[in-house]
From TrEMBL:
Keywords: Hydrolase, Nuclease. GO terms for molecular function: hydrolase activity; RNA binding; RNA endonuclease activity. InterPro entries: N1-like, Ribonuclease/ribotoxin. It comes from Streptomyces fodineus. This is Ribonuclease N. The keyword Transit peptide does not apply.
Length: 146
């Protein structure tokens, strides 16, 4: 029986590089699946996502709460709106939406059942036709796909 062939010790740097390459490939595959970023995307890989919505979570209009769909209907009709602050300039001070000049975005209240005030839900529209929905008072947004 021939003597065993001595194995070279594994290079830890090469091993780590290989593991990182696999992890990166898995992450990139997940990002390109069309699911958007963030939870509750609701958009399949075959859905067409407008350029302004790339890189963020998305939600189809039909999957929004009924109150949000009613607010969108009012926006489409130009009102009348139930809250005095509906249609005011949204400043984007949190910087969670793409940066534009002041006045580019407008915000509208989405009624929250059981809330005694305006609640945390809003729809924000952009002059380029963008529609965003937040249910956590501007901490996160999802692009609304119609």
């Amino acid at each position: 029986m021939p003597p065993p062939i001595p194995r070279r010790p594994r290079n830890p740097v090469r091993l780590l590089a290989g593991v990182l390459a696999v992890v990166l490939a898995v992450l990139l595959a997940g990002c390109s699946s069309g699911s958007g970023s963030g939870s509750g995307s609701g958009v399949g890989a075959s859905a067409s996502v407008p350029a302004w919505a790339h890189g963020m979570g998305t939600v189809r209009q039909a999957q929004l709460p009924a109150e949000a769909r009613r607010t969108l209907g009012l926006i489409d009709k130009g009102g009348p709106f139930p809250y005095a602050k509906d249609g005011v300039v949204f400043g984007n001070f949190e910087g969670r939406l793409p940066r534009h000049q002041r006045g580019y975005y407008r915000e509208y209240t989405v009624r929250t059942p059981g809330s005694r005030d305006r609640g945390a839900r809003r729809i924000v529209t952009g002059q380029g036709g963008e529609i965003y929905y937040t249910d956590d008072h501007y901490n996160s947004f999802r692009a609304v796909l119609r």
